[in-house]
Design a protein that fits this description.
alpha+beta; Jelly Rolls; 4-stranded antiparallel β-sheet
Amino acid sequence: MPEKSHKHVTCENCLSRQNSLFGSFCGEEVDLLERQKSCSYFKKNQPLFIEGSAPRGVYCINEGKVKIFARGEEGKEQIIHLAAAGEVVGFRAMFSGEPYKVSATTLEESNICFIGKSDFLDLVDSNPTLRNGIMKELSKELADRATFITNMAQKSVRERLAFSLLMLQDIYKEEMINLSREDMANFVGTATETLIRLLKDFKEEELIATHARRVEILDREGLLRVAGN
């Protein structure tokens, strides 16, 4: 059986681009972006970049999902963000001049486009709309991260799980949440055994249903109450 490969998607026809940092591009801007990017197929659990490595460019997700995480002293992952189609990953490191502070790995089979560092920085220098979009994205991320950290620091594990499931539903949209129990525990910030026990409790309370490892939200309002929101 032949190795699966990427699907070449032109920037002009890419539906995911419309919701990305490049969504405002048109005409010659799209043509330039098309010439500068390359598409690649990534298997599940394949790294895009690892913590401590030098940034080479940015990754725009056409299809699939990517986890952004850091490792603690004992090597345990703490997932800090899940990126979905339309998101550009790795652009923050372009401006710091420092190695990546986090790692990025695919959660599922993904089609991802890559733009080299110099080409991306040239785009930023020449396109005020892209610059403004990046500033807005960084500002929003700072506010979202503050809310996330506050919630995770002040809530019980049960409340954090409810809060996390609501966030994950927003990421997965019409799909069921499809994360390994270990990844979900690393997102919530708890032990896998504790997560499994709490998921069982939520299932008995008819807040969720499980289908193998997939999680279906049955009662969003109920989860909101549990999360204390």
